[in-house]
Amino acid sequence: MRIIENVGEMQRQADAWRAEGEKISFVPTMGFLHEGHLSLLRSARTLGSKSVVSIFVNPTQFGPTEDFASYPRDVGKDLELSGKTGTDAAFVPAAAEMYPDGFQTFVEVTRVTKNLCGASRPIFFRGVATVVSKLFHAVKPHVAVFGQKDFQQLVAIRRMVKDLNMDVEIVGHPIVREKDGLAMSSRNTYLLGEERLVALRLHRSLEVARELVGSGEKNGGAILQAVNDCLTAGGGAAVDYARLCDTDTIEEVEVVEGPTLLALAVWVGKTRLIDNCVLGG
Ligand code: AMP
């Protein structure tokens, strides 16, 4: 696997591949790779003839009180794991390579980012859209894979690509979970002792909602009450949000008719976890 740290070098490699008729597939990540990321990388390999992973903890998507400094990092291990999937190149830029002195241009997706994580983390999606645009200009992919674990992010990226006429196909990948249901996340490494058990309630509450909808419940209030009860019973979890939304607009809905996003963000101790599922339809 080729390791590239420089934007110009990445662009030259992408141009060379394109000139040879290769199809470039791409998975952007913040590293500390787990099986969820690796599943995206394996999927990317089937979608193109040359695949690229980026490993970059993007400072512009973290608020001043968030965990940018402490975000888990292990680039050596990431390179080893991604190399084993057969990925052709890893783009691993330094922060100063992506945001040199004088940087002042941002990409903003205005509406689908208002609710959910956009409401809790005001600068998050501006940072994500900006870095993904920059990564697309560096890697020049034909196709890019994003996890449905970050459902709102996937919707925002699709919107950005459409609105800015970016010639990249966006593919969503299902959520990869631990055997006990916990959605894999680099941040799971923060969970201490009992917190790992408390964290299981996110997946359990999604199942409670799925069962309710399966038995005919359509009332959003009743579904969210059951979800909140499941999340908070036993203590140790503080719900940031548990909301039902339209899967395209990410606006809240009150009745589950057709596919509806149930999105969760929950604090377990000092760790903020997200999870979601699509109900109905
Ligand atoms: P991150 O490194 O957290 O920025 O994630 C990089 C990509 O991997 C994003 O598209 C995420 O949605 C995706 N991803 C992270 N965890 C999972 C998971 N458990 N299942 C599926 N995709 C995931």
The shape is globular
**Bound small molecules, which ones?**
adenosine monophosphate
What percentage of amino acids are in beta strands? 15-25%
Q: How do the strands of the widest beta sheet line up side by side? A: 1-4-3-2-5-6
- The level 1 CATH classification of the largest domain is Alpha Beta
> Level of helix content?
25-40%
The first-to-last residue Cα distance is 42 Å
Care to count the β-strands?
A: 9
Number of helices: 9
Can you describe this structure?
The longest helix is centred in the C-terminal third of the chain and has 20 residues, at 195-214. The protein has helices spanning 7-19, 35-47, 75-84, 95-98, 117-120, 124-139, 151-163, 195-214, 220-232, and strands at 2-4, 24-29, 50-55, 89-91, 143-147, 169-173, 237-246, 260-268, 271-279. It contains nine helices and nine strands. By secondary structure, the chain is α/β, with parallel strands linked by helices. The structure holds adenosine monophosphate.
Keywords:
9 strands; 281 residues; Rossmann fold; 20% strand; Pantoate--beta-alanine Ligase, Chain: A,domain 2; 38% helix; six-stranded parallel sheet; 9 helices
Write the layout of secondary structure elements.
Blueprint: E1 2-4, H1 7-19, E2 24-29, H2 35-47, E3 50-55, H3 75-84, E4 89-91, H4 95-98, H5 117-120, H6 124-139, E5 143-147, H7 151-163, E6 169-173, H8 195-214, H9 220-232, E7 237-246, E8 260-268, E9 271-279
Parallel strand pairs: 1-4, 2-3, 2-5, 3-4, 5-6
Antiparallel strand pairs: 7-8, 8-9
Helix pairs in contact: 6-7, 8-9
Outline of this structure?
The protein is an alpha/beta fold and 281 residues long. It has two domains: 2-173, 3-Layer(aba) Sandwich (Rossmann fold); 186-279, Pantoate-beta-alanine ligase, C-terminal domain (Pantoate--beta-alanine Ligase, Chain: A,domain 2).
